Amino acid sequence: MQYDVIVIGSGPGGYVAAIRCAQLGLKTACIEKYSTFGGTCLNVGCIPSKALLDSSEHFYNASHTFKTHGISLDNLKVDFEQMIKRKSEVVAQTTGGISFLFKKNKITSYQGMGSFIDKNTIKITKTDGTEETISGKNVIIATGSKPSNLPFLPIDKKRIITSTEALTLKEVPKHLILIGGGVIGLELGSVYARLGAKVSVIEYMDSIIPTMDKSLGKELQKVLAKQGMEFYLGHKVTGASVKGTNVTVTFDTPKGEKKELKGDYCLVAVGRVAYTDKLDLENIGLTVEERGRKITVDEHLETSVKGVYAIGDVVRGAMLAHKAEDEGTFVAEIIAGQKPHINYNLIPGVVYTWPEVASVGYTEEQLKEKGVKFKLGVFPFKASGRARASMDTDGFVKVLADEATDEILGVHMIGPRAADMIAEAVVAMEYRASAEDISRMSHAHPTYTEAIREACLDATAKRAIHI
Q1: What confidence category does residue 463 fall into, taking pLDDT thresholds of 50, 70 and 90?
Q2: Has 180 been labeled as part of a binding site?
Q3: Is 445 a catalytic residue?
Q4: Which member of 64, 300, 445, 466 is catalytic?
Q5: Residues 174 and 250 grouped into a single domain
Q6: Within-domain flag for 154
Q7: Where in this chain does the record put each FAD/NAD(P)-binding domain (predicted)?
Q8: pLDDT in tens, 94-111
Q9: Exposed end of the chain (fewer CB within 10 Å): N or C?
Q10: Does the annotation place 341 within a ligand binding site?
Q11: Residues 6 or more apart whose Cβ sits within 8 Å of residue 426
C-alpha cells in the first residue's frame, strides 16, 4: 500500500497528526502496537489518572467538607473495585472515540510494531509474528515515551511499580512510598492520599515540581502536607527491597545520613524516556540522543532524513499531550505546504492535584536569570468570594509583567480549576496583552477567574481591589 503519510503511534500527537493529514486530503495510515488507540495518555496516563483523581476528590470532599456544607453521610467508604471499573470505562469510551474518528476521516489503521526498512518503507510486525510492509512519501514518528527507571532499583510491577501499575492496583495502599516529586508522582500520590493511604515523597531536588515557578512548589507542598502527605526533599534514593508484602526504601539525607522507609508499595516516578527503540532508525541513518533517547529535528520537526518527521515525547521540549497535539497539527500542515506556527513558550503546564497547579510563560527565576526587569502581581484565593463559597481558598494567581511595557511575561497559579483558567492567560499572551488589558476586561462575578484580573491589577501599580 502507498500512502502520502504514515504515522507511527496513535497517542495525542499521532492521532491528531493523522486526522489533520486526512483533513488536508492526504492519504493517511496510522500504526499502533497496542490493541487500542490513544497511546500512553488515553490508556495509562492523562485520562485514567484524571478519572481516579476526580473519584478520589469526591470521596475526600464527602469525608472532609460535606458536613460543613450541611450534608451528613453515614458509613462512608471507598468501593475501590468500582472506582477502578469506572476509570476503565472512561478509558474505553475515549479510546473507542479515536477508532470512530479514524473511520470518519478514512484513515487506514494497522495494529503492530512499526519499524523502518528504508525512509519510505515501513514494516509492521503483528502480535502473531506475521509481517506486512507499507510505503509512504512521508513518515511521522509519534511513538511517545515510557516510564524511566533507576538502574539500581528493579521494578517488579507488583510492589515496586510505575505509574502504569498504579492505575490498576487491587487495593488502596496502607503506606505508599513515592520516589519523585514531579507531576506524575504527585497526581497519583494525591489519589491514594485522599483515599486514606499514608504517602511519603522522596525527591532528589530541593523542591517538588522543580521545573515550575518555585512559589508554586512551595504552596503545593504546604497544601499536600495539610492533606497528610510527607516530604523528604534533597534526599537521594539508594535502593529498595521487597519481602512479602513489604517494601523497604533506603536513601541518604542531605547531610549524608542513611535512612529507610517501610511501606507496602513503592511508586517510582522519576520521569519518562522517549520510546525510540525497535524503530530500526539505523536503517535510515538516524541516531538518538544519548540521554533521553530523543530524536533531533529542525524547526519544521523534520529529521535529518528528508520526509521523516518526529513529534511529541520523542523530540525536544516538555512531555505534554497538548504539546504533542500541536506538533501533530504543525507537521501535517507543513507536509501540506502550509506555514503553521507554534510558540513553545506559551504551551501551558498543569498539575492535576487539588488544588490544581498551572503555569505558562516565563517563571520568576527565568526572568531574573535573563536580567529582565518585571512587575509582579499576586492575588490569593482566600480573598475570592467564589473560592470562599466553595471552600477552595488555598493558593493564588501570580502575574509577571514587563516593567517597561506591561506585557504579560508569565502567569502561574495554584487553586481551584487552575487547569481551565490558565487558558485565559495563554490567549492573552498569544495576543501580547498587557496586565492592564486584562485588568480592564469584565470578569463575571463571582468566579475564580476574577483572581486573574485582580493579580493583573496588583501588577499594574498595585491596584488590586479586594486585597
Answers
A1: very high
A2: yes
A3: yes
A4: 445
A5: yes
A6: no
A7: 3-328
A8: 999 999 999 999 999 999
A9: N
A10: no
A11: 346, 348, 360
